[in-house]
Task: inverse folding
């Protein structure tokens, strides 16, 4: 595995920005250059029969046996067990956005903005589904030819070549339709996460335009770089289920958007306490359950790696919830309910890139670290620096995603995933994996930050980003949607 030079890294990032990012191709299947998926358990292997041996020594001497032809590898067949698991995982991940994320965010805003917040997650789900079918899957998960290091191709425009029995080389034991659906649910939740930073003040029209442009110009190319045969995955960067592709990506965009939008009117002088934390607890619980489709589903098969990823996810999430709770208890003297559920989400985020590479002890340490670090970032660093990341998209997803990606380089184990992490991480004598993880984090942060800023700048000077002061004061529900929550 060659170490990439700084000049080459800079060149790749510049080239990606010029191309516009959105045309990349491949998948979250953990295989070889992508986040490692062990060989599917259902992949068939058929031995080719060799000519029968002669029955007597004389006959054997008289008639030499012809050389046995080389056994041709039999293409793996669609496996019903893998297909059932991946359909289940896809639905679990979709549940993470609607209703999970929608309720989690809606419970943390004021009553006058609950419907507008719910609408953002719901509308993003519909919009991104259509865009993914039209072009998103193709540019993320097909071969981009000579530009494949940066972007995928357009062969699958409108999913034209996808027949009933088609399969992807990234997931050979399930129908490609199922694999496309699974990847679609990832593409849906990633831009939707950004809404946490935009709460209470962005135009709905601007939100929709931003979701569409960001999906194609940021999410698709970064997904290709890491999972689709692009330059980061080819280098050996490890991201099992989206620490950088999903969480750092969304968190960085949220931070840029929060800075460009400015603070909510009345922040620091008015009461902006969550209207209904019961919604947030229900939403966080749905996220926790759905996350098993997110992480364990990223094995793309129903096998031992899926099982270990599920265990790592549960352990890290519980550890992070406790770590945030006790940190807050010590500093603020009370363990808040919002703190507990935020800690759980932080643990889910941080274990995402590592879930298929670490053992239970590594998962425990990553979870404990995520709880403390994300609590500090979301509560104290935000207050110190003064930016208004309303629902802590950057503090939890950005910081947690980066932390998890880096710690993957520490705790990755060749015993857990010998296919994609054959040398393990830092603790197994492979410090170079840390270098690769820092490249992954740095490239995602820089590219996402630059392109997100450009997208928002265009929207600002065309249709405008922020609602008027009067609309913000009265509430987004009645002004943007003509409806209110009663009772």
Result:
């Amino acid at each position: 595995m060659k170490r990439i030079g700084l000049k080459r890294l800079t060149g790749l990032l510049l080239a990606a920005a010029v191309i516009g990012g959105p045309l990349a191709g491949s998948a979250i299947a953990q295989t070889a250059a992508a986040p490692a998926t062990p060989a599917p358990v259902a992949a068939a292997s058929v031995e080719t029969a060799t000519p029968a041996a002669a029955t007597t020594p004389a006959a054997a001497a008289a008639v030499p046996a012809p050389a046995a032809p080389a056994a041709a590898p039999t293409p793996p067949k669609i496996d019903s067990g893998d297909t059932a698991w991946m359909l289940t995982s896809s639905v679990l991940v979709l549940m993470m956005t609607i209703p999970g994320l929608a309720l989690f965010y809606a419970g943390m805003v004021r009553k006058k903005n609950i419907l507008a917040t719910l609408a953002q997650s719901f509308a993003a789900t519909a919009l991104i589904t259509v865009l993914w079918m039209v072009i998103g899957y193709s540019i993320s998960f097909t071969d981009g030819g000579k530009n494949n290091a940066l972007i995928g191709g357009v062969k699958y425009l409108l999913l034209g070549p996808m027949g009933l029995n088609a399969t992807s080389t990234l997931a050979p034991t399930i129908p490609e339709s199922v694999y496309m659906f699974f990847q679609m649910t990832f593409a849906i939740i990633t831009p939707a996460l950004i809404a946490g930073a935009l709460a209470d003040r962005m135009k709905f029209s601007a939100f929709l335009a931003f979701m569409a442009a960001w999906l194609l110009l940021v999410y698709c190319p970064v997904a290709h770089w890491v999972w689709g045969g692009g330059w980061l995955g080819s280098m050996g960067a490890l991201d099992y289920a989206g620490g950088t592709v999903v969480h750092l990506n969304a968190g960085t965009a949220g931070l840029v958007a929060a800075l460009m939008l400015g603070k909510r009117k009345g922040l620091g002088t008015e009461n902006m306490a969550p209207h209904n934390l019961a919604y947030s607890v229900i939403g966080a619980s749905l996220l926790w359950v759905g996350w098993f489709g997110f992480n364990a589903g990223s094995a793309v098969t129903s096998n031992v790696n899926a099982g270990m990823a599920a265990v790592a996810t549960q352990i890290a999430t519980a550890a992070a919830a406790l770590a945030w709770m006790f940190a807050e208890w010590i500093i603020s003297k009370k363990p808040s309910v919002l703190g507990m559920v935020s800690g759980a989400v932080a643990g889910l985020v941080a274990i995402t890139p590592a879930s298929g590479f670490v053992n239970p002890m590594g998962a425990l340490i990553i979870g404990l670290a995520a709880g403390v670090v994300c609590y500090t970032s979301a509560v104290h660093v935000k207050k110190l620096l003064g930016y208004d990341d309303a629902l802590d998209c950057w503090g939890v997803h950005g910081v947690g995603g980066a932390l998890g990606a880096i710690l993957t380089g520490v705790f990755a184990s060749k015993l857990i995933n010998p296919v994609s992490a054959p040398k393990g991480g830092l603790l197994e004598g492979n410090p170079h994996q840390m270098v690769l993880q820092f490249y992954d984090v740095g490239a995602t942060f820089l590219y996402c930050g630059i392109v997100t800023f450009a997208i928002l700048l265009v929207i600002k000077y065309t249709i405008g980003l922020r609602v008027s002061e009067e609309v913000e004061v009265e509430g987004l529900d009645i002004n943007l949607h003509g409806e209110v929550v009663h009772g």
Notes: DSSP finds 17 helices and no strands in the chain. The chain has one domain: 79-481.
